[in-house]
Amino acid sequence: MVIGAVILGCGYWYYNNHVMPAPVDLTTNRVSSGPAPAPSSESSMGASSDDEQPETPSAMNSAPAPVEEPSVGAVEEPVEEPVVEEPAIEEPAAEEPAVEEPAVEEPAVEEPAVEEPVAAAPSGGDYEALYEEAQGLRGRRKIDKLREAIAANPNGVGALADLAYILLNRSNFREAAELAERAVNIDPTSSKGWITLGAARQSLRDRSGAQEAYQACVDQGQGRYVRDCRAML
Known about the structure:
The chain has a domain at 124-231: Alpha Horseshoe (Serine Threonine Protein Phosphatase 5, Tetratricopeptide repeat). It contains nine helices and two strands. The termini are far apart. 50% of the residues lie in helices and 2% in strands. Helix 3 (124-135) runs antiparallel to helix 4 (139-152) and helix 7 (191-203) packs antiparallel against helix 8. Mean pLDDT is 73; it is low at 28-64, 70-75 and 117-124. The protein has helices spanning 2-19, 41-52, 124-135, 139-152, 157-169, 173-186, 191-203, 207-220, 226-231, and strands at residues 24-25, 30-31. It is rod-shaped, with a radius of gyration of 76 Å.
């Protein structure tokens, strides 16, 4: 086995050094240094014939072709883009709240009161004339004239009783009751005032007040309406 290993090692060495071609250096186009294989008899014969042939240019020791470096283009400088200035946005100024100053109240200056002259009360003659004139009128004109007579004499029983009677027939019961009550308080013998007061209270749903007015008419009243008051009892 040792002999066999020696034989294999020798065969491997011979194959690598004599049979395999020598590596070629591509950069120099020359055969790398190393032990050249021993030429055989056949190769020596061929070598003599090869010496007679001229070497081809490729076999000459030609310098390797220069390697062209890739051309580096001109370095373009970066173009600065124009800066677009954004318009400044003005913020609205904050309005300060208005401070209201307290109002200074000026002292009120009291003006001296001017006393108006008191109108003189109308004389009884004016009342009599107005009341007489109202007897010849009708409707609204009569009402206005009676009011003028009462204004001339607030105690005129005839004008008070007549106006209360007219307002009762116009369904103005409340004012009719007020005027009739004023008339009988001034003159309790006014049967027209009593019967008007009783009817006005009855229309205002004051039955007991109406009965009292009718009874007072019978007891104190004088004139044509006493019989009508008695009929209402």
